[in-house]
């Protein structure tokens, strides 16, 4: 717990504007929902979500990562988000509350082993992030998402968006080759590639 907060403090000193989600994901294995009360100093509390073994295997066989071929620096996107939050733009304030509700819905779906609901929360998360940071979906990624839509339960760019990695949950298992074929037909994704993702169920594991 102290390491999670220490990394957050370092990121603030480096002016990258980061939060605590990256280090929570890296240090604590398995599924979890993480909360912090609206107070300073910030105190992060992670709740582990036990996964049914059959559900974990099902999710493992359907989750893929795609490197979009476009690196991105979250700092610039985050600065825009923070400015809008401080200005209390109504749409931004409303979306922040919806993001919190969607995270809780995703936690329930994981606990209950509802794969389709997990995918729905993932896609909803991406739509909400696009409201928070307009322009965070590159044209090539939008084309890929559109072409893959019939085969997907869920889709989101990781982090702040703008590039980096996309997370996919497919309707059918073992769809890596299909995704590669669709990706090859998309413009502006010449440097993109597909990675097979795997749930990291032990602490301190990254997969």
Topology record:
Layout: H1 2-13, H2 21-27, E1 31-36, E2 44-49, H3 53-60, E3 63-67, H4 74-86, H5 90-112, H6 115-132, H7 139-148, E4 152-157, E5 165-170, H8 176-184, E6 193-196
Antiparallel strand pairs: 1-2, 3-5, 3-6, 4-5
In short:
This protein has 8 helices and 6 strands.
Characterise this structure.
The protein has 207 residues and is α+β, with helices and mostly antiparallel strands. It has helices at 2-13, 21-27, 53-60, 74-86, 90-112, 115-132, 139-148, 176-184, and strands at 31-36, 44-49, 63-67, 152-157, 165-170, 193-196. The strands form two sheets. It has a four-stranded antiparallel β-sheet. A two-stranded antiparallel ribbon has the order 1-2. A hairpin with a 7-residue loop joins strand 4 and strand 5 (165-170). The longest helix is centred in the middle third of the chain and has 23 residues, at 90-112.
Question: Any descriptors?
Answer:
207 residues, 6 strands, 48% helix
**Classification by helices and strands:** alpha+beta
Question: Which overall shape is indicated by the principal axes computed on the Cα atoms?
Answer: globular
Number of helices: 8
The neighbouring-strand order within the major sheet is: 4-5-3-6
The beta-strand count equals: 6
How confident is the prediction overall: mean pLDDT? 87
Poorly predicted sequence stretches spanning 5 or more consecutive residues: none
Q: What is the succession of H and E elements? A: HHEEHEHHHHEEHE
* Largest β sheet strand count, sense and barrel closure: 4 strands, antiparallel
Report how far the terminal alpha carbons are from each other: 21 Å
């Amino acid at each position: 717990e102290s390491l999670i907060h220490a990394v957050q403090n370092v990121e603030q000193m480096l002016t990258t504007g980061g939060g605590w989600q990256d280090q929570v994901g890296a240090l604590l294995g398995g599924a979890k929902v993480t909360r912090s009360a609206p107070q300073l100093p910030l105190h992060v509390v992670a709740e582990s979500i036990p996964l049914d073994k059959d559900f974990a295997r099902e999710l493992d066989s359907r989750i893929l990562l795609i490197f979009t071929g476009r690196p991105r620096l979250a700092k610039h996107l985050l600065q825009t988000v923070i400015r809008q939050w401080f200005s209390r733009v109504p749409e931004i304030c409303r979306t922040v509350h919806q993001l919190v509700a969607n995270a809780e819905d995703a936690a329930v779906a994981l606990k209950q082993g509802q794969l389709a609901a997990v995918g729905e929360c993932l896609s909803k998360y991406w739509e909400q992030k696009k409201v928070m940071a307009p322009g965070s979906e590159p044209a090539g990624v939008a084309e890929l998402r559109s072409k893959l839509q019939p085969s997907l339960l869920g889709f989101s760019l990781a982090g702040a968006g703008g590039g980096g990695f996309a997370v996919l949950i497919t309707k059918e298992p073992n769809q890596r080759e299909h995704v590669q074929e669709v990706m090859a037909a998309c413009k502006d994704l010449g440097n993109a590639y597909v990675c097979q993702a795997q749930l990291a169920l032990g602490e301190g594991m990254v997969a």
